[in-house]
Fold this sequence. Notes:
CATH class: Mainly Beta
Radius of gyration: 14 Å
Shape: globular
InterPro entries: RmlC-like_jellyroll, RmlC_Cupin_sf
Protein name: Cupin domain protein
Strand order of the largest sheet: 1-4-5-11-6-9
Organism: Streptomyces platensis
Number of domains: 1
Amino acid sequence: xxxxxxxxxxxxxxxxxxxxxxxxxxxxxxxxxxxxxxxxxxxxxxxxxxxxxxxxxxxxxxxxxxxxxxxxxxxxxxxxxxxxxxxxxxxxxxxxxxxxxxxxxxxxxxxxxxxxxxxxxxxxxxxxxxxxxx
Length: 134
C-alpha cells in the first residue's frame, strides 16, 4: 500500500509528478487531497474541501467511482466553462467515465469529503477522445 499526501494547498506534503494527472502538452493536479492507496489496478484518493475551497484542476484518464463520506452542495467546474451543481448525499456512490478537465468546489457551509477510486488498470487511450457523459 502506498500512502502520501498532496501539495494542494491544504498543508499536505508534495505528491510525486508521476501521480499528477497529465494530458499531452498540458499539466493538471491531483484528484484528491490525500492518496490513500495505489497498486497496479486502482488508485484511491481522499478529497476533503472546506466551504468555498476547490480541488486542483485535474482530469481522470480512467473511469472512476466516488463515494460521498461527508455530504454537501458542490459544483463541478469544467475547463470548457460547463458547470454542474450537485447536492451529494451521505453514502452516494457515483460512477463516472474518464472525462474532461475539471475541479470540484464546495458550495456548502460545512466541510465536504469523498473517496475517489480510479481504475488505473485500464490502459490509457493512445489519443484523448472527447469526454463521455453518463
